[in-house]
Write a structure and sequence with these properties.
Layout: E1 4-5, E2 14-15, H1 16-32, H2 38-46, H3 52-58, H4 79-85, H5 88-97, H6 103-110, H7 114-117, H8 119-135, H9 138-145, H10 164-181, H11 199-210
Antiparallel strand pairs: 1-2
Length: 211
C-alpha cells in the first residue's frame, strides 16, 4: 500500500511507508551506535542535551525504586527500554538551533541514511526555527528551545547554508500560516503569485493592518 503524504505547511511529498523503515534505521543507529561514540557525546555535551543512555542512568526501570545512595542506583537499563525514551526530534531541534546540523554531524548522529530517514524532519525543523525567529524575541525563542532537567540551550545561532529555495519555501508556508490566522482558507484563500512567493504574506499583513 502506497500513500502520498503531505505534512501540513510542507511542500515535499514522500511515501510515508517508504520513509518509516529508513527513520527506524536512523533511530536504531543513534541508539545502538552513535550515542556511544566520542564525537556524538562531545557535540551533545557542548549543546547541552542528554543522550538516551544518560537518561536511562537517571530514570528507574518500571516498578523499581531507587535508594538515594548513588552507589546503589542502577548504572543502565536494557537497550529496548532506552529506545522507548529516545525521541529524535529534540536532537534535531537542538542541532538546528545551534547550527550543528551540518551533513557531517547529522551523518554521525543518524547514519548513512539520515537524508531519507531524518531529512524531512530536519527540513521541517529548520523551517520551524525560521518561523520562531520571525514570530518572537530572542529571549522567547530561546525559552522554547530550552528543555527540562537542566538542558538549557547554551546559545542560538542563525541558520547556516540557507538556500534561496529554502527561504522562498519558508515564505510560501509563512503566507499559508498568516492566511490561517485570518481564516483565509478554501474559497477565501489568497492568490499566490508563483513568481513572487512572498506576495501573499505581504497581502495578509496588509489586511491585518487594516483590520
Amino acid at each position: 500500500m502506497s500513500v502520498s503524504f503531505q505534512h501540513p505547511f510542507q511542500e515535499i511529498q514522500f511515501d510515508l511507508f517508504e520513509w518509516y523503515p529508513k527513520f527506524q534505521s536512523c533511530l536504531a543507529y543513534f541508539i545502538d551506535h552513535a550515542q556511544h561514540t566520542g564525537p556524538v557525546q562531545t557535540v551533545a555535551a557542548y549543546v547541552n542535551i542528554k543522550l538516551p543512555y544518560q537518561k536511562a542512568q537517571q530514570a528507574p526501570a518500571p516498578g523499581q525504586t531507587w535508594n538515594r545512595n548513588p552507589s546503589e542506583q542502577p548504572s543502565s537499563q536494557p537497550e529496548a527500554h532506552q529506545s522507548q525514551i529516545a525521541f529524535l526530534i529534540p536532537y534535531v531541534r537542538r542541532l538546528v538551533a545551534t547550527s550543528f546540523d551540518s551533513p557531517t554531524v547529522l551523518n554521525g548522529f543518524f547514519g548513512d541514511e539520515w537524508e531519507a530517514g531524518i531529512g524531512p524532519i530536519h527540513e521541517s525543523e529548520r523551517r520551524n526555527y525560521l518561523f520562531a525567529a520571525k514570530s518572537d524575541t530572542w529571549l522567547s525563542v530561546k525559552s522554547h528551545y530550552d528543555m527540562e532537567d537542566g538542558q538549557l540551550i547554551p546559545f542560538l545561532r542563525p541558520l547556516q547554508n540557507v538556500t534561496v529555495e529554502e527561504i522562498e519555501a519558508a515564505e510560501a508556508n509563512w503566507s499559508e500560516w498568516l492566511a490561517m490566522q485570518d481564516w483565509m482558507l478554501g474559497p477565501r484563500a489568497p492568490t499566490v503569485d508563483a513568481t513572487n512567493p512572498g506576495s501573499s504574506a505581504r497581502g495578509a499583513n496588509a489586511r491585518r493592518g487594516r483590520a
